[in-house]
User: What shape does this take?
Amino acid sequence: VSGTMLANDVTVTVTYTQKHTLTMVVSQQGGGTTSPVVGDHQYDENTVVDISATPTDCCQFVNWTGEVADPNSAITTVTMDSDKTVTAHFTAKKAYNATTNTNYDTIQAAIDDAVNGQTIIVCPGTYYENLLINNKNITLKSSDSLNPTIIDGGNSGSVVQFTGGDTSTLQGFTIQNGSADNGGGIYVYESSPTIEKNKIMNNTSTYGGGISVESSYLNY
Assistant: This one.
C-alpha cells in the first residue's frame, strides 16, 4: 500500500512573559562597606541577592533596615519581588578586647575583664577616666597613630596607675590632665610596665608630674 498520510492540522500557541527588571538601592550609615556597594543595582524579578556588611576598624555592624531575610546578620539575602531599599547600619566602638572580640563602653571595664596575654584596643577619642591596671600582663594600646586617643584624668588623680606587680604595656596614648601627689600622668608602684609611644602632657604632681616610679622599674 502506498500513498501519503496527512496529519491533522495542529495549532501551537506560544505565550511570552515579559521579565521585569527591579532596582535595589543600597546605602549605609556609619563606618563600613557593603556588597553590593552603595548605589542602585538592577536585578531580574525574583532574583535572590546575597548582601553583606563589613565594618571598618573601630566600628561594628548593628543591623540592616529594609526587606532583608535577617536584619541582624551582616551576611543575608534580599528577594527581588519588588523594588527594594536596604541600609547597613554601623556604630563606633570605644574600647574592645581584640583577643575575645568583646566591646566595652569604658577602658577600665575592658581592663578589669582582661586576663594575662590579652590585648585591649582603644579607638580614637577623648576618654575621661582614671585607670588602674593591677597585677596583670596585658597590652593596652590605641588603634590609630594618626588620630589621637586621649585619656584625660580630669585633674582628679593619676591618669594611669600600675600596681601590684603589673607588667602590662601602655602604648600610643595622650595622657593628660592628671593631678596627684605622686605621678600626675602615670604612677607606677611595685610594678614593671612597658610604656612606649605615649604623649604625657599637662599633668601636675608634687613628685613626678609626668611619671612617678616607686619601688619599680620601667621598660621603654
The mean pLDDT is 93. Residues 107-113 form the longest helix (7 residues).
